[in-house]
Amino acid sequence: MSAPPPHTDRDLDLSNAGRGVWLVKVPKYIANKWEKAPGNIEVGKLKITKNLGHKAEVSLRLSEAVLALKEPGEGDIPKAHRLDVTTVTRQMLGVFSHVTPSSSSDAIVPETEKLFMEGRIVQKLECRPYADNCYMKLKLESIRRASVPQRQVQQLDRAVQNFKPVSDHKHNIEYAEKKKAEGKKMRDDKDAVLDMLFAAFEKHQYYNIRDLVKITRQPIVYLKEILNEVCNYNLKNPHRNMWELKPEYRHYKDDEKPAESVEKVDDSDDD
Question: Which of 19, 135, 235, 259 is 20 to 30 A (C-alpha) from 59?
Fold first, then answer.
């Protein structure tokens, strides 16, 4: 994970900090139209009607140029809207702009990033359409599109190899074959198994059952039968769950004992 870029202090232009601005929430269909509109056309007109003793009424009327920005099959959207006004009193909200320098290298003095405070939000306005026939058709179409499932069942007239399911995955098959091969281990002659055990205990004094299974490659039930004849199973620390030869089968002296164990771990014995 790469380190975040170092923080750089920049100057903030507060020339317009005292200017009051409006924060307007518009429906998604208006926002989509405005995003498509070029920067040289009128997108709408805002009308403020003042009534004595009442709050001012604010309305928005979209321009014909914006209404004409349609894609094939797209329906009409409402033209007239009202704006519900809420005064901001308990919050301090502002509008900021960020101007990045151009990529042109012709300038003698390189430009730097500029930050501006465009004003303080004094009112919040929510743009709402009037419940006319145009808006009802728009909502009906929106509900219809939302009800169409994203995934549909298609009937195929031929097999598609790219999406044909496999009966089993490769790693599952390999694992099953491995377990099957381990389950069919043949029992060797008892004397041959004893020779392998005595050779192993010449290297280490203690073994857990898993290591002895790997060394002898014998079924665990058969191996335990032989171990019970020539070995002791430790139930107490420090060699808990480890096997060691019985004293009568040890042919080394105390000062010539082999290494204690392959790994001194508290590994539970497999029954």
Answer: 19
